[in-house]
């Protein structure tokens, strides 16, 4: 049967896009879970700290996808939806009740959108402004948050550079390569 005559082709295409976005989101989460961010960069290994690192990686990938124009909007929507579903799961696991989930999710979605917009605006203003925006999202009681924010801003710039060089076909297939980062590299490469 010819490809155009198969009535299931639109479903296969939809399914492969969903699988690709799941794979891409999984890679973002895996990168955000690397211990180096919490042990080497100084980000607290808390719910808030992990949210920050996940948000930075999601921002970087969404920023790259945005560069592809309107043809990439469905991938960006799928990633954002997966992020929302993931956050809902985390809320449930931390004990937020069913009746509070919708209101908490609306608040989280609004704050996440504002956070990603803040990163976008800060990115255009330079690494120092980006570091300031990141510092604002770190837990306020953390000592050394300025150093952690500068390291994260420098790292984020490196991620954006690496993503810019990646083929969009690979990204849309769910494949992403993040720059290698290890605690030993922090001293030589990051402020």
Description:
This protein is mostly helical. The protein has helices at residues 9-32, 36-39, 47-66, 73-93, 101-125, 127-137, 145-165, 168-172, 183-189. It has one domain. Helices cover 72% and strands 0% of the residues. Helix 1 packs across helix 4, helix 3 (47-66) packs antiparallel against helix 4 and helix 5 (101-125) packs antiparallel against helix 6 (127-137). The longest helix has 25 residues, at 101-125. It is globular. The termini are far apart.
Elements, N to C (H/E)? HHHHHHHHH
Which radius of gyration do the C-alpha atoms yield? Answer: 18 Å
Total separate domains: 1
The secondary-structure class comes to mainly alpha
Low-confidence segments, ≥5 residues, pLDDT <50? 10-14, 186-191
Shape: globular
How confident overall, as mean pLDDT? 79
| Terminal-residue CA separation | 60 Å
Number of helices: 9
* Overall helicity: over 70%
Strand content: under 5%
Give the tally of β-strands. Answer: 0
Oligomeric status: single chain
Largest sheet: none
Descriptive key words:
single chain; 72% helix; mainly alpha; 191 residues; 9 helices; globular
Write the layout of secondary structure elements.
Elements: H1 9-32, H2 36-39, H3 47-66, H4 73-93, H5 101-125, H6 127-137, H7 145-165, H8 168-172, H9 183-189
Helix pairs in contact: 1-3, 1-4, 3-4, 3-5, 3-7, 4-5, 5-6, 6-7
